[in-house]
Structures are given as structure tokens and as C-alpha cells.
Design brief:
265 residues; alpha/beta; Nitrilase/N-carbamoyl-D-aminoacid amidohydrolase; six-stranded mixed beta sheet; 14 strands
């Protein structure tokens, strides 16, 4: 199976959900049928900021909120699976939640960021499960930004059948090397496709480093965005490459979990 994969590197206005969603709708206008999957950065509707922003005011129910409604209409309009994260309100808490919206506009899956960056813990509640979504025949594992630092997360998603792992990210200037190294390493470690969608530009407080990329099961960069501007990168990926790579070097099949007791609770 081949998949036309795209990653949108965006520069959202912090706190301006209306403007940011309108920009996405403009990006999608006229692109019906062009992509099978489009991955967007971390908190692309609201922008990412930890201090000086009212997360609770910007958070919405998932499903049922206006942002999910607009994303669902947009996905159906272009017949494309959309992946990205938004602020979710639930049980009096705020979550950094990834959503997967299928090409028919349905909400295929949600994932609440489980491994919070230490400074995020004052603002967000952690999720308690990992998620592999199925959308239009493709199995998509979900990880969010800081989580690319945890090989265990990616191994679990791979063992659960993920073929592509999407990483919506908010990585600032100075940490480009982490985005580059970890995205490639997690792809090659688990012999699957990985796509990182990062923020770019200066939002008034933070300069984001861009550098979004799509990586093959061999750890090769198939497409890479620049460091300065919003853009869309694309690659046609062949899911069959995963089984080919794993047959050549059967890493996951030769794990010995009994030797890793410290990885268990």
C-alpha cells in the first residue's frame, strides 16, 4: 500500500484559534484528493505557550467542540486524514490531545500526551494510554514532541502494529539536533515510517526551529522542511518497505523482554 503523506509546518498566532483554523482551511482549499494523510504541529489551533495564556479558556471538549467540527469538515472536504494536537477540556482538566480525523470527517482516535515535559505539568494533565489509530487502512501511532525522547513509547507502538508514527511537535531553536536525531533514530529503531511536524517562526516569545521531516524505516530522510518559514513537505511512502526491512534485520522479533526487568513497573 502506498500513502501520499504530507506534513504541514505552521506558524500559528498564539491564542487566536479562529485565525489559525482559517489559515489551515486556506491551505487545504483546492487540494481535494492530493494527500492521504496530513500531519500538523503540536497545538496548531492555539499555538504552543506554557506561560501567559489561559489554557482552560482555549480548551474544548473532544469530541463536541467547535475546533473538532471545523477539522472534521476540512478533512471531509479534501478527503484527507488529519493528525495534530489541540487543547482538550475534560473532567476539569486540560490535556494536550492528539486527534486523528479520517477522510470522511469522523474522529478516528484521540491520544492525550502521556509523557509531559516537566514544565508542562503545571498546565496539562497526563494521559494514561498509548494509541494506534486506523484511518483509511493505515495504522498510525501517536507521540507528541517530548515523547520522541522515549524509545519505549515507539517500541510499544511498533509492537501494536503502527506503520507510521506521527509526532506533532513544538521544538524551539537550540534543540534542532534532538528533532533530527530522534526522529531518524525512532524510525530506524522500529523499522517504520516516522513524520515530525514542527512549529516555525517567532510567536512573540519563542523562536521555533522548523525542520519538520518524513523518515523511512531505514532512518533516511525522505523530505525535510526549512528552518524559517511555514511550508508543506510531501513523500509517497510504501508500507511494504516495513516488512522488507524487518525481514532483512528482524529487530523486533528478536527482543528478549525477560532481560529487561527494569522496564517493567
Amino acid at each position: 500500500m502506498t500513502v501520499r503523506l504530507a506534513v504541514a509546518q505552521t506558524a500559528p498566532r498564539v491564542g487566536n484559534v479562529e485565525s489559525n483554523l482559517s489559515e489551515l482551511e486556506e491551505l487545504l482549499d483546492g487540494r481535494a484528493g492530493q494527500w492521504d494523510v496530513l500531519i500538523l504541529p503540536e497545538l496548531f489551533p492555539s499555538g504552543y505557550r506554557r506561560e501567559g495564556i489561559d489554557h482552560a479558556m482555549l480548551a474544548e471538549p473532544v469530541p463536541g467542540g467547535p475546533t473538532i467540527g471545523r477539522l472534521s469538515r476540512a478533512a471531509a472536504m479534501v478527503r484527507t486524514t488529519l493528525v495534530g494536537t489541540m487543547l482538550e477540556a475534560a473532567d476539569g482538566r486540560v490535556y494536550d490531545t492528539a486527534v486523528v480525523i479520517g477522510p470522511d470527517g469522523s474522529l478516528a482516535a484521540t491520544y492525550r500526551k502521556t509523557h509531559l515535559y516537566p514544565a508542562e505539568r503545571r498546565h496539562f494533565a497526563p494521559g494514561d494510554r498509548l494509541t494506534v489509530a486506523e484511518a483509511d487502512g493505515l495504522r498510525i501511532g501517536l507521540a507528541i514532541c517530548f515523547e520522541h525522547a522515549f524509545p519505549e513509547v515507539f517500541a510499544e507502538l511498533a509492537l501494536a502494529g503502527a506503520e507510521l508514527i506521527a509526532i506533532p511537535s513544538a521544538v524551539p531553536v537550540g534543540f534542532e539536533y534532538l528533532l533530527e536525531l530522534r526522529t531518524r533514530a525512532r524510525a530506524q529503531d522500529n523499522q517504520l515510517f516516522v513524520a515530525a511536524a514542527n512549529l516555525v517562526g517567532f510567536d512573540g516569545a519563542t523562536q521555533w526551529c522548523g525542520g519538520s521531516m518524513i523518515v523511512s524505516p531505514r532512518g533516511e530522510v525522505l523530505a525535510r522542511a526549512g528552518a524559517q518559514n511555514p511550508e508543506v513537505i510531501e513523500a509517497v511512502i510504501d508500507v511494504g518497505e516495513i516488512s522488507g526491512e524487518r525481514s532483512q534485520e528482524p529487530i523486533l522479533a528478536n527482543r528478549r523482554p525477560e532481560l529487561y526487568p527494569r522496564l517493567r513497573p
